[in-house]
Structures are given as structure tokens and as C-alpha cells.
Amino acid sequence: MELFTSTFENKVDRKGRVSVPAKYRAILDARGEPIILTRSLTLPCLEGMSLDRMNKYADAIDSMDAFSEEAEMLQMIIASAQEMRPDSEGRIVLPEEFLSHADISDAATFIGIGRSFQLWNPQAYQSRENKSRQAARDGKMPKLILNPRPKSGDGA
Description:
Number of strands: 8
Largest sheet: 6 strands, antiparallel
CATH superfamily: Transcriptional regulator MraZ domain
């Protein structure tokens, strides 16, 4: 499975259209999937993913107590999600509530975070990146455990 990687900054026009990085479109096109875009629950950004990834979120939520506060909170990921397909020029239209949530106006920074990606106001993303890098330099780096992924047929 290809990962969403790299950082791209693209212009947003007056109609809220932004070009999705060609690398990201290629990953989704290879899967035959639309872009699923949702408002982040915890960050001032938008989260983009494949339909397969959104289905995994739904499966995880379905495994919870349906009436719990946790399930209700996570259901907001699905409730705010919109399916989008880029136009012939590779652009999607960001709805006003998405632009407002992420404080995006004339540019958006796309950041690949592995199996999904985020869209940020460029200045907000730069601030977040600087803060994370400084915290790492200050010794606050989280422990990263790299476990080997199970091979298919290993019962996992």
C-alpha cells in the first residue's frame, strides 16, 4: 500500500478550488477510490483519506458501545466527511465549513501523514511543524516502536 508522503502548498481560488497533489491523486486513482475529506476533531485542519481508510474508521466505531460518548464523538469524523472526485484539472472544491474550520483562504498546505493526509492553513502548519521539531530537539521525542508487519498468511 502506497503512503501519502511529502508536503505541498497549493493555491486556493475564490471558488474554494484547490489542486490535489498529483502524487495523492495517483494513489487514489490506482485504488479507484474518491477522496474522503473530513474536518479534524482535534486539530485546525482537514483530513483526507481513501474510502477504504474511512471504512476502517467505521468498523472501529462499530466495534464500540454504540451509545458511548466515545463512539458518538468519533462518529463526527464520518458525519462531517464528504466524498470528492477531482475535476479534469485535479481540483476539488472545499466547502465553506471546511475552509472556515481550517482557516484556509488563498493557499492550503497538504501534508502526507502515511495512510492519510491533512490540509492546513500554511502559516498554522508552519507553526505546528516548528513546535514539533523544537519539542524533539528539547528531548520530548515520543518513543517510536517499529514492529515488523505480519506477512499475509501469517494469521494476522
